[in-house]
Amino acid sequence: MTEVQLLGITISILLVSTVLLFIRRRRRFPVMLLGYSCHLPDSDRRCTLDLCEYLGARMNIYDFEALEFMRLIYRKSGLGEETYMPPYLMQPVECLSIKHPTAIQEAKEGLFSTVSALLCKTDVAPQAITHVVVACSLFSPSPSLSSLLINRFGFSESVKTYAFSGMGCSAGTMCVDFATRLLRYQPGYALIVVTESMGVNWYFGNNRHMLVTNCIFRVGSAALILTSDPTQRPKAKMELVLTQRTHHGADDSAYGAAIQMDDEDGMVGVALTKDLIRVAGTSLRRHISTLAPHVLPLSEMVRYAYRVGKSYLAGDKKSASLQVPDFTKAFEHICFHAGGKAVIDSVGKLMKFEHGVLEPARMTLHRFGNTSSSLVFYELAYFEAKGRIKKGDRVWMLAFGTGFKACSVVWRALKDSSMDPDNPWINCIHRYPVS
Ligand SMILES: CC(C)(COP(=O)(O)OP(=O)(O)OC[C@H]1O[C@@H](n2cnc3c(N)ncnc32)[C@H](O)[C@@H]1OP(=O)(O)O)[C@@H](O)C(=O)NCCC(=O)NCCSC(=O)CC(=O)O
């Protein structure tokens, strides 16, 4: 063989392997939801509204107006009699200065119970997990919550971990978007765990915006495993269709709509402004305008364009701007972030949804309160507990988060849903929906 021939063969081999490597790198693997688990705290953490009120009153730190205000909000909140309070608040009042250990305890309870149940029911060995993604907005200890999981479950040394904080209630859907980017080009298993730390962030002042937070947020966590391993397809519940994120924080009012800050007396809390409802509406309009072309059938796009055009031609610009496409034409089921009764009401109105569309959001708020980033998974569990999801159905998860952000995740069911043994609604679904 001549030198020229040898060089030719070498170059050809190099070229072919580069092309193969490129194809392999660019190959997009479908990402699937193998399973998920939502935390159901022990029954001794369950709180009636009266008990919630009492836990605040016994601290002897709130003035009369603040206590009356909290009573009013509890009654109007849409929360029921069975939400869960954090261990910090359930301990004797003289122990309230002990914060960090109870925050760790709260985190461990949510994280360990959901991850144990999930690994067990999906039959995934801890060693198979390639990525661990944890999000908790208001508690970011060191070592991180993802390290806490590694330490407890012994994932492999090559596992890549990520711990997010400050991402607000959209962190659950955001983590799905993030993990999908990790899994798309390389088969793997991402464990996502989302939680919130209620106890250590309890607000002890009299500022109404911060008291609203105390009244509506409750304990909850969710863990899920996403995989891009094609062999897992027969076991997977749903396939991810798309994710879509929008950030509206360039606008000052959107940035400050829900924000952690000091009150006038230096007490730290998360203030929920009354403007949040308007901000959520504006952000939602922008968000769905980016989502619509990817999900709506052409017929609905045409119908929408026709309605807008008709209003313009009639000289009614306001009516034109209030038109929204019918998203129920794109999705059979909607898990909308149940951030508060007023948020659900205003979204329902803006999207022109019939009452039943947001039933899972209202019922989840009633049963579990605002559990922050895990809420949409409790809603998914509601659909499953009711056996409503059928193979081929499309599910839309939409969550808002501080910042102000909106994040959508769209799934397609790979099988009919059924109630898992650890479904958090298992003991109460027969009582829902409540009016
Ligand atoms: C707080 C509510 C349950 C109150 O119910 P209603 O609206 O039916 O009651 P209402 O209008 O009569 O209000 C009762 C009293 O509360 C006051 N009030 C209402 N909202 C307030 C707020 N944000 N700050 C301070 N005060 C508030 C009203 O002025 C009124 O006081 P007065 O009687 O003196 O006039 C509701 O407004 C609600 O769900 N709000 C949305 C909560 C929210 O922001 N959720 C998003 C969380 S953030 C999130 O989920 C994302 C994230 O964290 O990342």
From TrEMBL:
GO terms for biological process: fatty acid biosynthetic process. Pathway: Lipid metabolism; fatty acid biosynthesis. GO terms for molecular function: acyltransferase activity, transferring groups other than amino-acyl groups. CDD domains: CHS_like. The chain crosses the membrane at residues 6-23, 395-414. InterPro entries: 3-ktacl-CoA_syn (IPR012392), ACP_syn_III_C (IPR013747), FAE1_typ3_polyketide_synth (IPR013601), Thiolase-like (IPR016039). Residues 24-307 form the FAE domain. GO terms for cellular component: membrane. The active site is at 169, 247, 333, 337, 366, 370. Residues 332-412 form the Beta-ketoacyl-[acyl-carrier-protein] synthase III C-terminal domain. Its EC number is 2.3.1.-. Keywords: Acyltransferase, Membrane, Transferase, Transmembrane, Transmembrane helix. Belongs to the thiolase-like superfamily. Chalcone/stilbene synthases family. This is 3-ketoacyl-CoA synthase. The lineage of its organism: Eukaryota, Viridiplantae, Streptophyta, Embryophyta, Tracheophyta.
